[in-house]
Every structure is written in C-alpha cells, then in structure tokens.
Write a structure and sequence with these properties.
The chain is an alpha+beta fold. Helix content is about 30%, strand content about 15%. Among the domains are: about 1-45 and about 765-905, Isoleucyl-tRNA Synthetase, Domain 1; about 175-285 and about 530-610, no CATH class; about 310-525, Isoleucyl-tRNA Synthetase, domain 2 (Alpha-Beta Complex); about 910-970, Ubiquitin-like (UB roll), CATH 3.10.20. α20 crosses α21 (about 765-770) and α21 (about 765-770) crosses α22. The longest helix has 19 residues, at about 820-835. It is globular, with a radius of gyration of 35 Å.
Length: about 950
C-alpha cells in the first residue's frame, strides 16, 4: 500500500500529482471512466426513483408504511453562464444527506427543477433576438449536464420547469383559487367567494351602501367583491421603474431606491395592478413560525417584516373628510400638535375619486417656512411629491437626514383637545406602514421633534420627564420618550389621563375613543399586500379576462393552461430611467389577436367579447408551490393526489404543520420566496387542497463559496488565474493589482467551473472538497490548489482495496485486530452523527482518520473493514464507492445498501484517564475502565503511591468521586 508515485517535481498544474505508469491507479482518467459508467447505470436502472403510495409513480404496497424523507434545494435559475463551483455547494450537501437517508432505510424524494421564467432570459432575448424559450431551454440542457456529472441522485421523473405549460397550468389554477376566495375572519381561514356572495344575497352581510345585493349592478357587485378577494386589482402606490418598463415589489428595490436588476432608479407611482391579500394571513404567518425548524435569524427577519404592533386607530376631522392614523402611543394623543401625511396619501393625490384636502390658497397667517417658497398649496404639494418619488424608503426614513416637508394648507382637528393642527406632507412618512398618516407628538418622538424644530411648530409635554429637563419642550435638546412615566397635561371635560401610567392611559383613551365613535383599539402590520403583476413578456399569463364593463372574470379550468403567445417584440416599452412621469406598456398588449377574444365562459351567458389581462405574473409565482408538484408531476387531473401529498408533506409528530423535511438554500430569500410560499400553502390548505399548512418544516441556509477578486488601478476585475504574487504583492501583466475576497462570478473573472475540476480530478474529489472546506452554513474561500488533498484521500482509499498493478481487490477474510475494530466503529459512530446533523466536513475528517489508520497498519484489509469503509464514503463519493462495492463482490447498488451501525463495545474507550486531586492539586493520573464504579475508583485512588505520599498519614475528611474521570480528596 505505497503512496502515489509522482514526478521529481512533485506536482503538476493546479497542484495535481503527475501520475506514473500504473495500470489500475486511481487517476483523473480512471475517475472519469468510473463516474460516467455509474451515472449511466443509475439513470438506466432508475436507482434514485422514489415511489409514491398511489398514482403513476406508485411503488410496492408497503410504500405508505415506510419512513420517508422529502429533501429539497431552492429552485435554481438556468443561467446562460452555467454553473461555477460555488453553485453546487447546497446541491452536493442535500445529495450527501439524501444518500445517507436512503442507506438508513428511508424512502427519499430528492429531485431538482428549474425556475425558468424571469427577467434575465427576457433581457437576453431583447439583446439578441433569440426567443427566451430557446435560450432558457438551452441553459437548462447545459445545467442538467453539469449537475449529472456531479453524480447527484435526483429522481429525474419528478423534475419540472416552470415554463412548461403543463406546469404553469397549475400555477394559473392556484391563482384562480386565490382569486375566487376571501378571508373569513370568523373562520380564520380562506373560503370560496361564493360563500361571501351567499351572505350578501341573504342579507346576513350588508352591502357597503345598505342596498340589497339584487339591486347592485354587475360592476357594483364586482367592486364589492374586489374588496374581499385574496387576489384583486387596484390602483395602488407601486414602485415604477421606467428603465425596466415595469413595476417592482418592495423586496426587488434596493436600499438606495434602485432596481435589483439593472440598477435603475425606482419611483413611487399609482398604477392598476394585481395584488395578493397576504396581509389577511399576517397573524398566522407570524404565529406558525414557532413550530418551524428554521434558523432563528430567518424567523426574526420574517417577524420584523410582518411587523405586528398593537395600538389604536384615531380619526382626525379635516373639513368634510377625516384623516385616520394608527398609533401605538394613543396615550400621547393630547400632545399631537400637527399631522403628517405620506406624499402618496389619497387625500393629497386625489385618486379613487377622493376629494383633495389641498385648498386653492394659503390660509391667512401661514408661516413662510411652511410653504417651501411656493405661491399656492397645490404648487408646493406637487413639487414636493415629485421630489419624494425619486427617493427610496430607506433614504426617506434615514435618521440623520434633514427633515423636509411642506404644508398642505389644510387643518385637522385634534379629537381630544379640539385644537386645529396643521397638516403637512413629508417623506419620512410612508404609505407602506399604518395608514400613511401620523399624528405628530414632537415632544415625545425624535423624528417629530426634529421636524417641529425645522418648521417652527408647537410642542406640548404630555409624558412627565424623569430627568431634570423641565416641562417646556421649547428648552429641550431632544424629545423625551418613555414607557415608564406618568401622563400629564392630558384632560378635557369628559376624560383625564393625568397621573396614569402609559399602559393604563392607553387602555382608558382607547375605550373613550371607541365610545365616541372616533377610534378603536387595533393591530397593525408592517406587511403590505403583495404586488403580483409585471409588465413583462416572459412570465405566466393571468387566466383573467375583462368584459366590456371592465369586470374581471376567471377562465374556467377547461381553458387552462392559457399559454403564452408568440410575439415578435419581447421587450416592454422602456423609458428614460429618470423620467417618473411615464406609464407601462406591456409586450402582450401589442398582440391584438390574442388580447381581444370571443369566449363562452360556461356561465350561461353564451359567447361574449373579452379583453385578456396583458400583465404577466412575477417570477416568484412558479416557486410558490413547486414542492407540491415534485410529489405528483404527471397528474393532469389535480394539483397533487391527496394521499401522495399526505404521505410526503402531511403533519406528523414533531412537524405539526407538515412540510418538506429539509429545505436547503440561501438566506437571501427570507422575506421573498419563503414568505410568499408560506402564504400560498396556507390558502391551499384552507380551501381543502392540501393537508400541510406550511411548505418547509426544516430550513437550512448554506454558506457561500467565495473567491479572490483581483482589480487593477482602474478598479476593473482582471483574470484571477493570471494574477501573480511576489513578496506579498499581487501583479497582473506587470502592474500591481488589489486582492479582496468576494463573490465568485463570470463578471468578476474569478469563476471556476465544476467541469474544470471534474476533468482534472473527478467529480468525487470535487464533492469531497466542497463538503470538507468547512461547516456547511459558513462561507469559505475557494482554493483550487487545496483540491488535491481530497484527491489523495480517494487514491489512498482505492489503494487500500485494489491492487494498482492487477486491478484485483486485496482484501482477506481474516478478522481485524482490536485496534482496527475500535478505529472502525468510532468512525462509524462519528460519521453517523455528523451525517444526521449535516456536519459533512467533520464526517470526512473521521473517514480520513480511519483510512490513514488502515494505511499505516500495512497488509491487506479485512473484508468486513473494507466494506464498511466503502459504505462510509458512499454518500460523499458515490462513484468510487459504487465501483469498489462491485469489486468487493456485491451485485446490488451501494446506493441502497445498509449504512453500517457502530458496535458500542468498540466505541467506548478501552480506558480513560482519571485525575486524582489532593487539596485541589493533581497528585496522580490513573488509567481505568470507563465503566468503573465510584467505590472501585475511590479505592484505586487511595491506594496510589503518589496519593498516599501527598496525604502524609493525614486523615480524610471527604472524597468526591466523579467516575470515571475525577477523584478529589479533602484531608482532615
């Protein structure tokens, strides 16, 4: 069992050993041959196919009784650049885990599809004239090839692509379930919209204006139902990106107020868009997090994004209108000295027919600083709204920025004090939280205090300061805020809060507001409804048509899928990126033959003319439910067979909400994909389509593989492979370059493809290296030179079983010695625990330690040891394991062989070291059996000569025994 023979130089390119002539040595060429053969075998034999309990993928009758594991990776997008070595990190990890689970008797569902709609393919189509389907399908073919080469054990029968009409038929179907349902607060669940109609028809639920349901026109009925539907269209503030020609969800806008894709400016605008009423599920989305096995950091992000807060709704009259605010400090209502509206507030913009509160002229006595230098309130408001539209929400709420705003010319009435308070608009108030309006209590809020100082507004102290600042806010340097203070200066003829603590004052004022009919206690959420439409071509068409009155109708299921039509021009109309005064024009709207149709919707009204919806769904739609389609991918009659869904995803012990057993992916999707998928899952459960209330029970966030980025003096990335180091300084083509650790990518010129590593070392080596780099959840730097370490491990393992000269196995049927048995079973025990906890780096270390022990013993291995060594490495390096398993005489695949079980007799150390202390100082170390009793250990310690000498004949007051590792003797 000699080491690898190398040239005198030792290494070849990239650090790989230069192989000498040995016909059966494990080399890159042999690895390539082994890997290709076994990949073909696995595919032909259907080795990774997981049977369902029913349906066309059903297996044996005992499938339903078998333990199962549903293991998933987050949906990859089929990039044109293909994979670099950073991409497969999570894929390899889930594959290793899935293989171990198969070997422990589980029916394992593990597959991978492609989230293939979206902006990149469309942008590529616009640039090249290539249809996005053509480029996307080519990218999928390339990625499938790359993933197959890694030996990933996916059930290919279950792989799906979101661009397949057979798949997005069900995406459209789910949308219609959501469109045709409403959230019933009494049931605390979604119910079919027909149940709401029944309530209106019977009079159990009054219409908004009190008329009978039968007296409402079709348009009026549609408008009423639109206020309840879980999917609805409305004119709402949106993030309009002229440079992309589309609107974006809040989560797709950076902190700098620019688009994630393209880095274009994003503006606030009002457009008619489809929305999902995810806010109806805010409480359930929040509460159900507790039962999920997710990283606490991700749970915290979702809790913060949902943002539940308890407070009160308060109405402030303003002319014939009212301004409604939500506040968590209703106890400070007497201190409200002005109001602030978001620039997008309906009372300012005048949308939806709501009259504007902005007067024609400035009221008498208006302060000059309030006007912004404008002649009329209308001019001031218009100018400020345009200014605010160009800022991101983060910019608008930055604490350090100067407070800006403008007076609207309107006054509201404080409902408890009766005082007239001026109404401003300011960009630090957002429509995305509360009602888009605040009552400003400047004495007790830092932002309000700064605004009041800037605009010379009055302040009133209503919470008694606990320091020596006094009661006059005009003399303060900042606001005073406290939840542990008394309320002061807060009374009128019908209520007094004076002397109460914050909690008591909140309760009292809330009850008073409700009694007066001008407010009520309420719960508010930061979460906003999900903007669910894009002005793009490459996405799922909405299964919605509009009649001549503009009423939206759902297509019957028989008309699904509504396929995306062919168009000559894929690009939405884009505009000057800085021009906020523009409107979207979608690619589908230019296809008049597809847009204008005559249809019989099966509603008894015959054939009518309709206009199709010309927006498409966002790229998140297909990934909101793909875990369910993996279960039953060929079902043309239902989303998923109920028994199959129950088997793979239904609630069970330890998983009260059901869901996927392990979901691995990046932490960047915490409040996008994960929140949206949870919402869809709950709606489908409420409507009786699924048994699971959550899509993913256990979530694991893998780290990132990073790489060094080298940049020249201009800051431009240069090829990492061509940078040279001399005395700690880096050079490229003779010039100095900087080096920083960052992402790996084609644009950064530091990408390494898995194809390169597989060609030089083999896929098993790549798999081992990626898993050995460090803990799975920690980012780590890529170092191609270090890959050779795992290559050598496989060479030594091969050499321990196979004669490199003849290719024959060298094992013998003799029993191993005790030292080898102990090394073997300790490795089995450790690897078993590491596999269960996704600690693959330490599992590899234990296999390496065992293999090194076997190498040092010399001579042929015992067959039992060799077989268990192969089984231990099988989940990590499946190709070489399959080859060695077959060479060892097995006809069955190692994929379904039983993972070895440790014998506890050999796991426990033969002896352990016991420390004996006298007066707290170590006087002896005894080698004892790990099972020694307290009495026997005490006797051995007292008999030790070193202990006897330390006691010097003194008596013993106490002996403390902690078998088997400690004895502490206290002399008298």
């Amino acid at each position: 069992m000699s080491e690898t023979t190398t040239s005198p130089a030792g290494n070849g390119a990239g650090g790989a050993p230069i192989e000498m002539a040995a016909p059966h040595r494990y080399t890159a060429a042999l690895a390539a041959d082994i890997e290709a053969r076994w990949q073909d075998f696995w595919e032909t034999e259907g080795t990774y196919e997981a049977p369902n309990p029913t349906g066309d993928l059903a297996g044996d009758a005992d499938v339903a009784a078998r333990p199962k594991k549903f293991i998933m990776d987050m949906f990859p997008y089929p990039s044109g650049a293909g994979l670099h070595v950073g991409h497969p990190l999570g894929f390899i990890a889930t594959d290793v885990y899935a293989r171990h689970q198969r070997m422990t008797g589980h029916n394992v569902l593990h597959t991978l599809g492609f989230d293939a709609f979206g902006l990149p393919a469309e942008q590529y189509a616009v640039q090249t004239g290539t249809h996005p389907r053509v480029s996307t399908e080519a990218n999928i073919v390339n990625m499938r090839r790359q993933l197959r080469r890694l030996g990933l054990g996916h059930d290919q029968r279950r792989s799906i692509e979101t661009i397949d009409p057979a798949y997005y038929k069900w995406t459209q179907w789910i949308f219609l379930q959501i469109f045709n349902s409403w959230y019933d607060p009494e049931a605390d669940a979604a119910r079919p919209i027909d149940t709401l109609v029944t309530q209106f028809e019977s009079g159990a639920r009054p219409t908004p204006d009190g008329r009978a349901w039968s007296e409402l026109s079709a348009v009026e009925r549609a408008n009423v139902l639109g206020e309840y539907r879980l999917a609805y269209a409305s004119d709402a503030p949106v993030n309009w990106c002229p440079g992309l020609g589309t609107v974006l969800a809040n989560e797709e806008v950076t902190a700098e107020g620019r688009s994630e894709r393209g880095n274009y400016p994003v503006f606030k605008a009002k457009l008619r868009q489809w929305n999902m009423r995810i806010t109806a599920y805010a409480d359930r989305l929040l509460n159900d997090l507790d039962a999920l096995d997710w990283p606490e950091a991700i749970k915290l992000q979702q809790r913060n994004w949902i943002g539940r807060s308890e407070g009160a709704r308060v109405d402030f009259p303003v002319g014939d209108n009212k301004i409604t605010v939500f506040t968590t400090r209703q106890d400070t209502l007497f201190g409200a000295t002005y109001m602030v509206l978001a620039p997008e507030h309906d009372l300012i913009s005048g949308s939806n027919g709501t009259p504007s509160i902005v007067p024609d002229a400035w009221p008498e006595g208006t302060h000059e600083v309030w006007t912004g230098g404008h002649a009329t309130p209308a001019e001031a408001v218009a100018a400020y709204r345009k200014q605010a539209a160009a800022k991101s929400d983060v910019e608008r709420q930055a604490e350090a920025k100067d407070k800006t705003g403008v007076f609207t010319g309107a006054y509201a009435t404080n409902p408890v004090s009766g005082e007239r308070v001026p109404v401003f608009i300011a960009d630090y108030v957002l429509m995305g939280y509360g009602t888009g309006a605040i009552m400003a209590v400047p004495a007790h809020d830092g932002r309000d205090f700064a605004f009041a100082r800037a605009f010379e507004l009055p302040m009133r102290c209503v919470v008694e300061p606990s320091d020596d600042r006094g009661m006059d806010p005009a003399t303060w340097d900042d606001a005073f805020s406290s939840y542990d203070a008394k309320i002061v200066n807060s009374s009128n003829s019908t209520i007094s809060l004076d002397g109460l603590g914050v909690t008591g004052a909140k309760e009292k004022i809330t009850d008073w507001l409700a009694a007066q009919g001008i407010g009520e206690g309420t719960v508010n959420f930061r979460l906003r409804d999900w903007l669910f439409s894009r002005q793009r071509y490459w996405g799922e068409p909405f299964p919605i048509v509009y009649d001549e009155d503009g009423v939206a109708h759902s297509l019957p299921e028989s008309m699904l899928p509504l396929e995306l039509p062919e168009v000559e021009d894929y690009s939405p109309r884009t505009f000057d990126p800085d021009d906020a005064d523009t409107q979207p024009e979608t690619p589908l709207s230019r296809n008049e033959d597809w847009v204008n149709v005559e249809l019989d919707l099966g509603d008894g009204k015959g054939v009518r003319r309709f206009r199709r919806e010309t927006n498409t769904m966002p790229n998140w739609a297909g990934s909101c439910w793909y875990e369910m389609r993996y279960l039953d991918p060929n079902n043309s009659d239902a989303l998923v067979d109920p028994a199959t869904e129950q088997y793979w995803m239904g609630p069970r012990e330890g998983q009260p909400h059901g869901g996927v057993d392990l979901y691995v992916g990046g932490a960047e999707h915490a409040v996008l994909h994960l929140l949206y998928a949870r919402f869809w899952s709950k709606v489908l459960h409420d409507l009786g389509h699924t048994s699971s209330r959550e899509p993913f029970h256990k979530l694991y966030n893998q780290g990132m593989i990073q790489a060094y980025v080298y940049r020249d003096a201009r800051g431009i990335a240069v090829p990492a492979t061509e940078a040279e180091e001399r005395d700690g300084v880096f050079y490229y083509e003779g010039g100095k370059v900087s080096r920083l650790l960052g992402k790996m990518g084609k644009s950064l010129k530091n990408a390494v493809t898995p194809d390169e590593i597989c060609a030089e070392y083999g896929a098993d080596t790549l798999r081992l290296y990626e898993m050995a780099m460090g803990p799975l959840d920690v980012s780590r730097p890529w170092d191609t030179r270090a890959v050779v370490g795992q290559y050598r491990l496989l060479q030594r393992l091969w050499r321990n079983v196979v004669d490199e000269a003849t290719g024959e196995v060298t094992v013998v049927d003799a029993e191993p010695d005790e030292a080898t048995l102990r090394a073997l079973h300790k490795a089995i025990d450790g690897v078993t625990q590491d596999m269960a906890n996704l600690r693959f780096n330490t599992a590899i270390a234990k296999v390496t330690e065992l293999n090194n022990h076997l190498t040092k013993t010399g001579g042929p291995l015992s067959r039992t040891v060799a077989e268990r060594l192969v089984l231990l490495i099988a989940p990590l390096a499946p190709h070489i394991a399959e080859e060695l398993w077959r060479k060892l005489g097995h006809s069955d695949s190692v994929v379904h062989a039983d993972f070895p079980v440790a014998d506890p007799t050999y796991v426990v150390d033969e002896t352990v070291t016991c420390v004996v202390q006298v007066k707290g100082k170590v006087k002896a170390r005894l080698e004892v059996a790990p099972t020694i009793s307290d009495a026997d250990l005490e006797a051995a310690a007292l008999a030790d000569q070193g202990v006897v000498a330390a006691l010097g004949g003194a008596g013993i007051r106490k002996v403390i025994v902690r078998a088997p590792k400690l004895v502490n003797i206290v002399p008298a």
